[in-house]
């Protein structure tokens, strides 16, 4: 008969809340110390420095110091409390920090204040209901395309065809919205969502078939299909769907019953105005995050997709068909990309125009990379890029010296550090964590 010795300490059910609270307190202490010091330094530098670039250099040092201290606190917190979050939280946060430093240096070189520029971007993205409306509108687009890339990633495929799949999804939305007399917007939303997903999946099916049956590289075929989709859409909008007597390459405006409620109608109490593009598609995007999580981690099909992505030979040995997984994963990926059109075409433009995607398919690649192909990470990364898009627009408006091209440079820096230079941050972090971990005898 065996006996067990109960632990002397009962499990602390509030440990996660305590951990987060301690982290928040540590950050608060840092900002209480650094904030006044930084304010004094910036005031003194502005008052006594004759050369603006000296002031900007001091501002950069202030940004560098504050961010570095915050990052060190986060590292200590994760190392001591939640080491499993090293890959999903610490590495992306460090990448964003280095991207912000690169952005600050770029802004200094064009002769502007990095602190003021960052304040404008944050205020423009989150400082008002107007800013939130546009930020969440862009976020919705990036959630769909980010999830699309993430699903393909799990099957070890790189779907770069989000642009074309979203464009064809818009074609499906336009056909369904203009061809059927919908009695209510909710039914129109359901019908347009199905059509967008089917058209996007159909456009992804051809590269998927070429990959599965012919061995064609999925990157080459999907990126080429972006150009084919763009040419096809131009032809259709000019020769088939263009309104008679109009020179604009766009469809007729959708009927009233197909127009989706925007944020002023369901969240007007939060200050959203009628001009906000944020609409109910945002909730469809949230539901898609939940659906992808259930699919990938709670279904047999999701297990097969992940198993195939980790090792094709092992998956084949286990009886998983590579042709089946390649086709299904790409169909799901294309369908998610196509669903972006219900936000941009049905929700915002209320008609199909030439460039309704506006690069969201390519941004989805960075979103999936930064979000580690997990729906929660994709949502947070999409929110970051939505803020960059909206904050960048405000920055261009309030700082004329910063052109649209400079905004693209800032966005590219974030993509560079969170995607292409991911290992530059990850590998030193891994070595540091291995060196600091307690040694057992």
Give a written overview of the molecule.
With 441 residues, the protein is mainly alpha-helical. The chain has 2 domains: 17-112 and 426-436; 129-400, ABC transporter involved in vitamin B12 uptake, BtuC (Orthogonal Bundle), CATH 1.10.3470. The chain has 18 helices and no strands. It has helices at residues 15-48, 52-80, 86-109, 114-126, 129-154, 162-179, 185-214, 218-239, 263-266, 281-298, 300-310, 312-317, 322-338, 341-349, 360-370, 375-398, 404-420, 422-436. Helix 11 crosses helix 13 (322-338). The chain is globular and about 65 Å long. The protein starts with 14 loop residues before the first helix and ends in a 5-residue tail after the last helix. The relative contact order is 0.15.
List the helices and strands and how they pair.
Elements: H1 15-48, H2 52-80, H3 86-109, H4 114-126, H5 129-154, H6 162-179, H7 185-214, H8 218-239, H9 263-266, H10 281-298, H11 300-310, H12 312-317, H13 322-338, H14 341-349, H15 360-370, H16 375-398, H17 404-420, H18 422-436
Helix pairs in contact: 1-2, 2-3, 3-4, 3-17, 3-18, 4-5, 4-16, 5-10, 5-13, 5-15, 5-16, 6-7, 6-8, 6-13, 6-14, 6-15, 7-8, 7-13, 10-11, 10-16, 11-13, 15-16, 16-17, 17-18
Number of domains: 2
CATH topology of the largest domain: ABC transporter involved in vitamin B12 uptake, BtuC
Uncertain residue ranges: 1-13
**Got a strand count?**
0
